[in-house]
Amino acid sequence: MKALVPLKQFLSDHFPMMTVDKCHLLIVNGTQKDGYLEYTARLLIIDYRADPVEVIMVIREWLKSNNLHLDETGKDIQISFSSEIIDSETFDLEIDFPQRDKVISNCNGYHICPDLVWNELQGGFFPKGG
Predict the structure, then answer these.
(1) Residue of 9, 52, 67, 115 with fewest CB within 10 Å of its CB?
(2) DSSP string, 1-29
(3) What pLDDT, in 10s, does the model give residues 113-128?
C-alpha cells in the first residue's frame, strides 16, 4: 500500500489542473489470505477540468514504471473507472485497480515482502515497486 503514496503527488505534478486536495487515494475491498493482502486501490479525483482518459493512461504508465502493473499471473492489471460528468469540461473520477502485497508475519511483527522483478538495466532481480 505504501508504494502507492507517491502517486498522488505525481498526478498533481503531471496535471496542473489537479490539486492534491482534490485527489484522494483510498484502499477498499481488502482481504488477507494465504500470506497476501489483496485490495483495490481507488483514486477519487474531484472537479477535474481536463481529459479524464489521459489521467487513466498516465496512471497506467506510472504503475508500469513502478512495477505495480502486473497481477499474480504476470498479466496487466485491469483499471476500472466511473465518472460523474458535471459539464462538458468538469468530471469527478473514480479510478480503481487491484494490488497485492506479500506479508511475512512472525513473533516479532510483520513486514511487506515485495515480489521480485527482473531489471534489465541493473542486471538482476529487485523488489517490485522499489
Answers:
(1) 9
(2) -GGGHHHHHHHHHH-TT--GGGEEEEEEE
(3) 666 677 778 777 676 6
